[in-house]
Amino acid sequence: MIMPNQQNGQDGQGFLWLGTERGYYRGPLSTSEKRVFGAHVLYVAAEGRFQAVIGGSRLTGDRHWVIAPAYQAHTMLCSTPNQPFLAYVIEPEACVTPQLMTALESWCARRNQAQRVDGLRRLERRIKRDTATDTDRLMFGRSLARRPLDPRIDQALQVLRENPKLPHAAGCLAESCELSRSRFLHLFREETGLSFRRFRAWRRARHVMARMGLCSNLTRLAVDLGYPDATHFSHSVRRTYGLKATDLRAILRRTELRIDSRVA
């Protein structure tokens, strides 16, 4: 289920769609500070070129596009303030990463800059008409394979996608899987390549993005999403998105939002 439009933003004001396993953004990148997303992100400059630092290494030359792998700190060194970008976002637990990277690189390499921008804008228009669209099929001409996971961990991931603030989540999920807490945490890392705490922190930060645009009280939002206090919340937002919470909220209030109710 998708929540109805939450903003009256016009076409030039930006657009954000968040599904449970995919996302799309069109709008400005207003800072050169580093950010760390728990998802793979294809960035395409809507105008001009930019430079990028991925995982601490500065990539050579000016570029029109770049892929930032999940959980890798990255910085977009924009050529102008508030340079407009388009981004396609894929959660790593929902894909086979080598296949995805090959698909993204091939998609970009076969197109010039105008064609990349046009392709992503077509994707945006389709999402606006039907948020249940298979976005991978539109992008790549086929659906991408899902990462094979132990069914117990797959179910735990689904719970965390929808409720990352779940109290005592590791213990509750371990019990539902009929595993000890320590065995559950070990199996979670083995299957996903991530610690339970790190995955949960990203899903919580994703819910921040989904809800912040309509939020008038950031302290209340922090409590609602299970952060210990406002300081932890502020640090998490800055570490994930490279922005102060108030600055992120200002951008989202100028952005048309389409949010799956399961991530809001």
Key words describing this protein structure:
globular, Jelly Rolls, three-stranded antiparallel β-sheet, Arc Repressor Mutant, subunit A, alpha+beta, single chain, 2 domains, 264 residues
Describe the structure.
- The strands form 2 sheets. A 6-stranded mixed beta sheet has the order 6-3-8-2-1-9, sandwiched between helices. A 3-stranded antiparallel beta sheet has the order 5-4-7, with no helix packed on it.
- It has helices at residues 97-109, 113-129, 135-140, 151-162, 169-176, 181-192, 196-212, 218-224, 230-241, 245-253; strands spanning 15-18, 22-29, 40-45, 50-54, 57-58, 65-68, 74-78, 83-90, 256-259.
- It is of the alpha+beta class and 264 residues long.
- It has 10 helices and 9 strands.
- Helix 5 (169-176) crosses helix 6 (181-192).
- The longest helix has 17 residues, at 113-129.
- It has 2 domains: 22-90 and 96-140, Jelly Rolls, CATH 2.60.120; 151-263, Arc Repressor Mutant, subunit A (Orthogonal Bundle), CATH 1.10.10.60.
